[in-house]
Amino acid sequence: MVSSRRSLAALLAAMLGLGACSGAVNSRYDKASGGDPAAVRAVLDAAPVAGPGALDRSTAALAIHRKGTVAIGAGYDVPLYSMKNPMTGEYTGFDASLAKMLAKYLTGRTDVQWVNVTSDTREALLENGTTDFTVATYQITPQRARLVDFAGPYLIGGGAILVRADNTSVHGLADLNGVTTATMPAVAAEALQQQQPGAQQVIFDSASQCLQALRQGRVDAFFLNSAILSGFVLKHDDVKFAGPPTRDAPFGIGMSKQDPQLKRVVDDWLRRIYADGSWARLWRATIGTVERHEPPKPPVLGSVPGS
Question: In this structure, are residues 283 and 94 in contact, taking their beta carbons and an 8 Å threshold?
């Protein structure tokens, strides 16, 4: 496994050093980021489109349909979930491809206007109309649900710890007492405070900044959702997980509260792709290329507070 991660990291580094790229290089980039491009394309090609009358109850959904494109708030540095290809500008991963499927359902096309978001900007960009949806490992919480509506959950993750590969002292949350620990604002920082108040938190705006601080030795641990951290472990053989993750982070699709019926339209779409197997096929084509087991059962819609 270590040699596999090393070769993937070397491949990605080599590709990032190229001034020009071919289709073959782009395909290898997608695989190094945690996805099978051909399998993802097959899922997108077969993804459903809303039938007559399916959008009629939501003025926001009808407006998106007429516009013909969807503005999606997305992460840009999360392998397996949402990663921006620096050579093409395309976004790959489970979340990014799910967003394309949603766009196709609403407009008949997978065209997406991508907007990079952070934990500090997600709600504001939805509220001011810059984005129509946020699909970015966006954890559903009652506090956030006061500001935005959530469809879902569409996936369940959990908190986990990364340390450098040579670390032998951190094996779980109990060992973070007094340890400098990178994390991100809001939910992650609050979860770490609740689960290990003795950790010396160092807050960064993005997951990539946290990872850089860990690899450079500026912090000794990195706490965040395991869904995000698994991609970093895939790419970098100088970091590893310290203990198993929890399973308490439900991800949802965020949207403005201006049209409550839009949430119902998106939930109906999620039910459809759960039932027809599209969701499971997308999981296999992205997350499943690394986790190597059968897809989990899709979460029950509306099953967590705030959804």
Answer: yes
- DSSP, res 60: H
Cα–Cα distance for residue pair 225/233, rounded to 1 Å:
13
Query: Can you name the residues that pair with 115 across neighbouring β-strands?
Result: 73
Taking residues 203-227, what's their average pLDDT? 94
Which contiguous run of DSSP H or E holds residue 241?
strand 239-241
- Hey, what amino acid is at 14? A
Cα angle 256, 45, 66; round to 5: 40
pLDDT digits (tens, 9 = 90+) for 173-195: 999 999 999 999 988 999 999 99
DSSP state of 117: -
Cα distances (Å, whole numbers) of residue 260 to 27, 52, 127, 175, 264: 39, 20, 13, 44, 7
Q: What is the pLDDT of residues 191-206, one digit of tens each?
A: 999 999 999 999 999 8
Angle at 134 between CA 128 and CA 140, to 5 degrees: 110
Choose between 289 and 13: higher pLDDT: 289
CA-based torsion, 209, 16, 97, 285: positive or negative: negative
